[in-house]
Amino acid sequence: MLAAGVEAEPGELDLLALNRRSQDQWPDFAAELERAAGISVGLRQEGTIVAALTRDDAAQLRFAYDFQRQHGIALEFLTGSEARRREPHLHPNLAAAVFSPADHQVDNRLLVRALERAFVAAGGTLRTHAPVEALETGDGRVTGVRVAGSRHDADVVVLAAGAWSGQVGGLPAPLPVRPVKGQMLALRMDPAAPLLSHVVWAPKAYLVPRRDGRLIVGATTEERGFDPNLTAGGILALLEGAWRAVPGIEELPIDEMWVGFRPGSRDDAPVLGPSGVPGLVLATGHHRNGILLTPVTAETVARYVLEGEVDPVIEPFALARFGARARERA
Q: Which of 49, 118, 166, 277 is most buried, with most CB under 10 Å away?
C-alpha cells in the first residue's frame, strides 16, 4: 500500500514529508522500472477507502481526517451510503468513510521481480541464497563484505538487509533494527468480478485487491522476534476484521497464508544515510513503509553515495538521532 495520506499521524511530520515525496515519485518510478524490466509492477491508482463501522470508529476517523486535511492531504469524507456507491460490498450499516484519491497500491512481489530484472540488465551481479556474513573493515572504514565465505571488496557498502540488518557481523556498533512480525493471508476472488476495486482500510484489518484476483488481508503487528509461525488467533483476528467490513469475503477460498518481518527501529522510522563510519551507508528500519519509500530511498541514498550530499528530507532519519535522544533523556 502506498498510503502516505491515510497513515499520517500526529507527531510524525518528518516521516509524512518523506512518505509524500516518495508517493509523488511512484508513477514515474514505476514507469521507468517497467521499461527497464519489461514486466508490470502492478501499480493501481483507484485510491483508498478508510471505513468506519461504528459511531466511535467514525469519531476517530473524523479526528484523523481533520489532522490530515490540515497538512494538505486531499481527502473526501463520505457517508456510509456514499462509500457503498464506490464499493457495494462494504457492510450495509457502514457509519462513514474517507476516500483518499492519492493513496494507491503496488504488487510487492511483482516489484521485487522487476527490480531484479532491471538490476541484472544494468550490469549488476546478484548472488542469491548466499548469506551476508559480515562487514569487512580496515583502517577505520568498511572495505567490503564477506558473503558465503568469500570476501568482496567495495568502496561503499549499503546496508539494506531489512529486519536482518542488525544481525550482519562486523557492525561498528549495535544497529537499533528489530523484526516486527506480521501474519497475512490472501483470499481468491473472481478476477472478472472482483469483490473490491479499492484498497479498503477497516478498523482491524486492511484489504488489498490484486489484478490477478487475490485479495490480500493483513496484517498483525507482533513483537515476537523471528517467530515464523502462523497462529489461529492471528488469522482469526484478520478474518474477523475483514469480514466485519466486507461480509462477502466469507464465501471466498483461502489462497495463501504467510508470515513476514518488518524492520522496525526504536521510533519505527527509517534509518537512512551516513552510518558514522566511512564506507558504510544505511538504508533500513522502514517498518511498514518499505515499499512506499522505495523511490525516495533509492534516490537519496544513491545521491549520498555518488555525490556525498545528504538530502534534507532524510536528515531527520540519520542513525545519530538515537544517540541525541539518549543524551536528551539523560
A: 49
Residues of the chain with pLDDT under 70: 324-330
Residue 164 belongs to a domain: yes
Q: Which three cell numbers stand for residue 174?
A: 549495535
Q: Report pLDDT for 328.
A: 57
For residue 113, the model assigns a pLDDT of: 98
Number of domains in the chain: 1
Report pLDDT for 71.
96
Please give the pLDDT value at position 323. Answer: 83
Task: Put residue 234 in one of left, alpha, beta given phi > 0 → left and psi -120 to 50 → alpha.
Answer: alpha
Residues 6+ apart with CB under 8 A from 115: 33, 37
DSSP secondary structure string, 176-224? -EEEEEEEEEEEE--TTS-S-SSEEEETTEEEEE-TTSEEEEE---B--
C-alpha to C-alpha distance for 120 and 330, rounded to whole angstroms: 48
Please indicate, yes or no, if residue 309 is contained in any of the structural domains. yes
Q: Tell me the C-alpha distance between 162 and 33, whole Å.
A: 21
Cell of 179: 523484526
Range of the domain at 278: 118-178+267-329
Stated pTM of the model: 0.94
Instruction: Provide the CATH number for the domain around residue 170.
Output: 3.50.50.60
